[in-house]
Amino acid sequence: MRVQLFFVASVAVSTAAHGAYVFTGFGPTQWGIADTTLGVAGYTIENFEDVNLVNGLQVTISSPNGGYGPSSTIPNTFDPFTDSTHGNAFQLGGGGAWDGTRGLINTRTNREFPYGEVGSWGFTTFTFGSPATSIGFSVQQMDLQTTILINGNPVGLLDVLAGWTTNGLRQGYVRIDATGNDVINTVTIANGNNGNFSDGLMFDHVAFNAVPEPTTILALGFGGLATLLRRRRTVL
């Protein structure tokens, strides 16, 4: 992990498609913008301000030196300004939290390890309890190009798809929308291209829009039908 002391602005908004998914990236100049601008208003949001994750989301960290998950809790909270012990990487460019003060980093403890301890910086997987049609998250401190996988399948380089610069500072926010009948069950952010475990990443503001379960759809349908019948009786 290289620590750089300069800021490079990336593309403010970038849209790219890969197969069944459309990537919309927001650059660091729009860090912390509103959910309505991101296109995630009304989504379920996880900000990692405490160790308990919102319903419908689990996290997995996988690295040569260990990991955890899939889990609905994380080992610790991480504040880049009070919990940093090995440098200021997660503070550069304004710090890693999209909102609030804490985020998720790709280690088995959600705490920093020495940057040279490359086997402790791992892959991060977000698992959605119900398939999602759209998800999003912010990224801080990406130095190396890294592959993103959806439902276990590699779809390309995250920085390219989101229109970011791998500058070791704030990258920005990315929203991923499934198209057609496709859904998103898992999203994995690898660590460096080709499995190169050497980059620390921080994530925040994970948003997802889950597809209702079939039973829920039926219940809503029956509820709507009952309402319609009541209205018809009132009219009669």
Can you walk me through this structure?
- By secondary structure, this protein is mainly beta.
- The protein has one domain: Jelly Rolls (Sandwich), CATH 2.60.120.
- 13% of the residues lie in helices and 33% in strands.
- Strands 1, 2, 3, 4, 5, 6, 7, 8, 9, 10, 11 and 12 form a twelve-stranded antiparallel β-sheet that branches.
- β4 (57-62) and β5 form a beta hairpin.
- The longest helix has 22 residues, at 214-235.
- The chain is globular.
- 41% of the residues are buried.
- Residues 1-11 and 215-222 have low confidence and may be disordered.
Describe the secondary-structure layout.
Blueprint: E1 13-18, E2 21-26, H1 35-38, E3 44-46, E4 57-62, E5 68-71, E6 104-105, E7 123-140, E8 147-150, E9 153-157, H2 158-162, E10 170-178, E11 184-189, E12 202-210, H3 214-235
Antiparallel strand pairs: 1-2, 2-10, 3-12, 4-5, 4-7, 6-12, 7-10, 7-11, 7-12, 8-9, 8-11
Beta-sheet strand percentage?
25-35%
What CATH architecture do you see? Sandwich
Helicity level:
10-25%
Please report the number of helical segments: 3
CATH class: Mainly Beta
End-to-end separation in angstroms reads: 73 Å
Number of domains: 1
How would you concisely characterize the structure shown here?
With about 240 residues, this protein is mainly β.
Keywords:
12 strands, Jelly Rolls, 3 helices, mainly beta, disordered N terminus, 236 residues, 33% strand
